[in-house]
Design a protein that fits this description.
- By secondary structure, the chain is α/β, with parallel strands linked by helices.
- The chain folds into 2 domains: 171 residues, Aspartate Aminotransferase, domain 1; 251 residues, Type I PLP-dependent aspartate aminotransferase-like (Major domain) (Aspartate Aminotransferase, domain 2).
- It is 40% helix and 13% strand.
- Strand 5, helix 7 and strand 6 form a beta-alpha-beta unit.
- It is globular, with a radius of gyration of 21 Å.
Amino acid sequence: MKTIIEPFKIKVVEPIHMTTPEQREGVLQEAGFNLFLVKARDVLIDLLTDSGTGAMSSEQWAGIMRADESYAGAESFYRFERQMQEITGFTHVLPTHQGRASERILFELIGGAGKVVPNNAHFDTTRANVEHSGAEPVDLPIDEAKDPKNRHPFKGNINLQTLEDLIGRVGADRVPAVMVTVTNNSGGGQPVSLENLRGVRAICDRHGIPFFLDACRFAENAWFIKMREEGQGDRSVRDIVREMFDLADGATISAKKDGIVNIGGVLLLRDDALFQNATNLLILTEGYVTYGGLAGRDLEAMARGFEEVLREDYLDYRIRSTAYLGNQLTEAGIAIVEPPGGHAIYVDAKAFCPHIPPAEFPGQAVVAGLYRIGGVRAVEIGSVMFGGGGHAPPAMELVRLAMPRRVYTQSHIDYVAEAMSELHARRDTLRGLRIVDEPPALRHFTARFEEL
């Protein structure tokens, strides 16, 4: 069937506050053209992020009601732990309040001055936590990942030869871990193949280096493997997921993505000594080991969410719905990162408004224009997010339209496509921006702009 049917029924609805173009102009000015600073009530359709913005199921809400809120040894923790152990094969499971907390604990323990952490592409908080530890994050994408129009099926892959060269140049003793982000968020939500993950494992084994996954979207990555990788089509997603985790020595996970919850994170470890050190740091900064900065109800929702995300009818709907928006945009002549990613569509801002140079933030101009014309909130993935602070400009200037899980219907997405198409027709009117105020790190969250 061509029609994409949501594999769920709507049980509760939330009203959307409709705004006028005049109201949105005032909102933009007040927010300094930074959509992170816009109040949610002033947004018609919110595609800022897929992190923590999904709709929970009736089973998740039922779990919230039966939660055990004991400070230590809560039964909700043990249900969550058993679920993660069954899915991933890891025995050492630590809950955290969200993914960046898992990253902070990990890199406080393994990072440090003089160290180098390679990745296919660090996302914003991962990069910031590596740098905060004193280590240097290095992105090693394959060449195809730098070309938005290249339709390589696994553009999220890390460049294995470049990884070997880096280790040979800096020395294995300076590389505390190799990370691979699945799916590759910075590179357009593109998947990583099992073949590539096995190649990373082999390199790490040769050099005695631990291998970690940034596994926020592990289930979506597994679905792409099932659909695209030779020899994987007859395997279940659950089986592919297990192999992905079996290849790794540890993983950081934001449960706000493929856990389909509003808050929560996970740190998975194999090494006993590292687990003990992480436990001690968790207790110091997050909370006791059986709640990790979360309520028991959050642990219950996570346990159920990680189970539901492995449903193949859900993943089919999820990936096809994202591709539906991508296909609408390409048919309208709008350049995107191809093929469509799993959790978002990434518009090529350089192609969208070639009259705006990277120094004037073309992605931010598109983000502001999309809100102005349709009340749709998106996020820039380019020189605002990854530039500044001495960093080289990124290879691509992108606008991410991230799809919250189980939230919007096809008519909402049709509206987004119409708004983006109308903006594209008026793209010559878009103006560059300059930063008038920014913090020392993660500037995209709070920086303020003015139009040129």
